[in-house]
Amino acid sequence: MENVRELFQVMTRRFGLLNKNCCSIDGVDISLVQSHILYEIDKREYPSMQQVAEVLGMDITTFSRQIQNLVKKGLVKKTPLPEDRRVYTLSLTNEGKFIATTIDREIRQYLEEVFSHMTEFEKETVIRSIKLLNECMGKSSVCCKPLF
Amino acid sequence: MENVRELFQVMTRRFGLLNKNCCSIDGVDISLVQSHILYEIDKREYPSMQQVAEVLGMDITTFSRQIQNLVKKGLVKKTPLPEDRRVYTLSLTNEGKFIATTIDREIRQYLEEVFSHMTEFEKETVIRSIKLLNECMGKSSVCCKPLF
DNA sequence: AATGATTATTTGCAAATCGCAAATAATATA
DNA sequence: TATATTATTTGCGATTTGCAAATAATCATT
């Protein structure tokens, strides 16, 4: 049987490097964590600080400061929630959306290229496998549950 | 069709969190990068600094300092290579091996638990899928090749 | 063998990141 | 109204990062 952990380690490290390399867009440089933050904000509808920080497994204080940086860069907007003014709601500015979209396109292109080395059947099998894996990871009681 | 990038993002983030949570063993705390370094040294036969740094996509100077920390902690040994004394050869001490092994066991246990939510057939399909994916990522010309 | 070019690793340094503890500000509860 | 709880921010010190430059060993050329 395969060394499963090794397979995971290589795969996730490769994907991590890809993300890292995709962080320089049009003269705007953002860090890897900032890229993840933009991604999560883009994906959700006006999430709160806590929500995003938790999904990313980041300490809320570190997250708070990263958001401050992204606001300074003009990529993220913070809006107080009217019905509970303790919470701030996050959204992307147009520039932030542009950056997030560009990163997304690059990563998808890479994945397409990777899949181009497979048959259509293999590709579908792989994608279904990852989906199943995510579902089962979500069911696991051991670790890292919040994420989705 | 599924949002493939999203699937990858969730999966790799979960696995990343798992690694992060596995870094405290028996009173010895190591950081996530340090855990990756131990893993790679353990996997190889007396690799050089450069080799490991490159595989991990780390700046060599950052890597050098991390190795110094691990040596101070008594987890890693640096030996100059007799035939070329510029290069240092890395290996784990007994304590380092113990830490690496313990981390490995924990991660494997988690993965086993995840797979326990699948049929044997699904499990094998998923593992074969990840293997295929790694092979195709290795073939890709776009990004992140060195890794393996 | 002497010189300069190349290679592996380390240090100086300044910036970025991190996370705990404490502060602030708003809401919920009694 | 007083108190507890919750979301976010700030103080602070420790750690991590990566570029440029230093060091140290080997290689290439003469």
Polypeptide structure, described:
Chains A, B: This is MarR family transcriptional regulator. Chains A, B: Keywords: DNA-binding, Transcription, Transcription regulation. By secondary structure, the first copy, chain A, is α+β, with helices and mostly antiparallel strands. The first copy, chain A, has 6 helices and 4 strands, in the order αββαααββαα. Chain A has helices at residues 4-21, 32-43, 49-55, 60-72, 94-115, 120-139, and strands at 24-25, 28-29, 76-81, 84-92. In chain A, the strands form 2 sheets. A two-stranded antiparallel ribbon of chain A has the order 1-2. In chain A, strands 3-4 form a two-stranded antiparallel ribbon. The relative contact order of chain A is 0.11. At the A-B interface, helix 1, helix 2, helix 5 and helix 6 of A face helix 1, helix 2, helix 5 and helix 6 of B. The structure holds a DNA duplex (30 and 30 nucleotides).
- Mean pLDDT metric of chain A: 92
Low-confidence stretches of chain A: none
Q: What structural category do the secondary elements of chain A indicate? A: alpha+beta
Strand content of chain A: 5-15%
**Quaternary class:** homodimer
- State the CATH superfamily name of the domain at 15-110 in chain A: Winged helix-like DNA-binding domain superfamily/Winged helix DNA-binding domain
The percent of residues in helical segments of chain A reads 55-70%
Biggest beta sheet attributes of chain A: 2 strands, antiparallel
Tell me the number of helical segments of chain A per DSSP (H or I, 4 or more residues long): 6
- Shape assignment of chain A: globular
Please give the alpha-carbon distance between the first and last residues of chain A.
30 Å
**Which protein chains are joined by the largest interface, and how many residues does each one contribute?**
A-B, 56 and 56 residues
- Output the strand order for the largest sheet of chain A: 1-2
β-strand number of chain A? 4
* H/E element sequence of chain A: HEEHHHEEHH
Q: What is the CATH C level class of the domain at 15-110 in chain A, in words?
A: Mainly Alpha
